Structure formats: structure tokens, C-alpha cells
Amino acid sequence: MATASASLRLPVAADTVWKLVGGFLSLPDWLPFIASSEPAEGGRLRKLTTADGAVIVERLETYDNQARTYSYSITEGPFPVTDYFATLKVEASGDSETLVTWSGRFTPNGISEVEAQALFQGVYDGGLQALKGNF
What we know:
Layout: E1 2-10, H1 14-21, H2 27-30, E2 34-40, E3 45-50, E4 55-64, E5 69-76, E6 81-92, E7 98-108, H3 113-132
Antiparallel strand pairs: 1-7, 2-3, 3-4, 4-5, 5-6, 6-7
């Protein structure tokens, strides 16, 4: 199983960051790569459409508003991996500083572990840089 992880410190209160990223359907609000997010199964699934038209379906696996974290899996998408499971976490590291971590694990399918790690490392790094642009 391969893994990837990215972290970013922001000079903003954790509650402020969580208000932007904490909604399971909120990806289009801060991630330009995602054009839309539609709920299904009472909000337990999100059907994402990317800017280039690809569709990704993700299932909410855990959600903890107080701890400011959620985990999800991919049930359908264009990625050459299986068993994808990721976590987004927002942690206070002071009154006005926040550590955001986005990490995942997955099994490469038809590509090498290094290629799969590079793919999701790029997603996480790019996503957190986009998030930084909101603050």
C-alpha cells in the first residue's frame, strides 16, 4: 500500500480554516480543480466533477466536527488506484496559526507505487496551495 501526505501552516485560526474546508461538499469553495460537488445518499457520498469533466465519487467514512477532521474513500474515479482512503485534518497550533494535513493511502493499479505516490502528492500539495490562496 502506498501513501502520500502534505501539510501547510496558515496564519489563521483553526476554526476559520475549518469553516471553509470542513463541509464534506465544500471542495469547490477552495479547490479550483473541483468544479462541482453534488450530494448523494443523504450527504454520505459526494459526486465531484473536475474542471476537465472527470467524475469522482467519494464516500464520507468518518467526520468529527469538534476535532476538525474527516476521512473519505474513493468509490469511483479516473485514478489508477484501489482501496483509496484519505484524511483531511485542521489543527490549531496557537491562537492564530493552523496546521492543515491532507494524507492518503492507496493501492496502485497498473502503475508503480512511486507513480501513485507522486500523483496524490501532487493533488495534496496543489490542493493545500490553493487553500492558502483563500487566506
